[in-house]
Design brief:
about 120 residues
Length: about 120
């Protein structure tokens, strides 16, 4: 797992680990214009290879803006282009609501737990 690192005063990239062949990336805080560039750069590295399998654990994300949505769409597109798979784990109703209002719930594989997301792929 990568070391914890602060991206700004209100959003964090917690780390990455591999579970059942899936790269689980843990995020918390707010995914907004201030911190998505750093997260996006890291996700670009993870999605650069052949068949990237990624679970974004966003259970501790409390806010997402248009830049966060754009980052998620980019990660989804990059994984699909490389014949990989992206799952997103959500808990916060406000974040789920933003995805629903943006009409993106059908575009992503959304799950309630990391275990459920991994089981859906295997």
């Amino acid at each position: 797992m990568l070391e914890d690192r602060r991206l700004d005063r209100h959003g964090e990239f917690v780390g990455q680990r591999v579970v059942g062949g899936e790269s689980v990336v843990e995020l918390r805080g707010e995914l907004d214009i201030l911190n998505t560039p750093g997260i996006s750069d890291y996700l670009d590295v993870l999605t650069a290879g052949h068949q990237p399998h990624i679970v974004l654990d966003m259970r501790e994300v409390s806010f997402i803006d248009a830049s966060g949505l754009s980052m998620l769409v980019r990660v989804r597109r990059r994984t699909a282009e490389r014949r990989g798979h992206l799952s997103i784990v959500l808990r916060d109703p406000a974040v789920s609501r933003v995805l629903r209002l943006a009409q993106l719930t059908g575009y992503f594989n959304l799950h309630d737990s990391v275990e459920e997301a991994i089981a859906a792929v295997t």
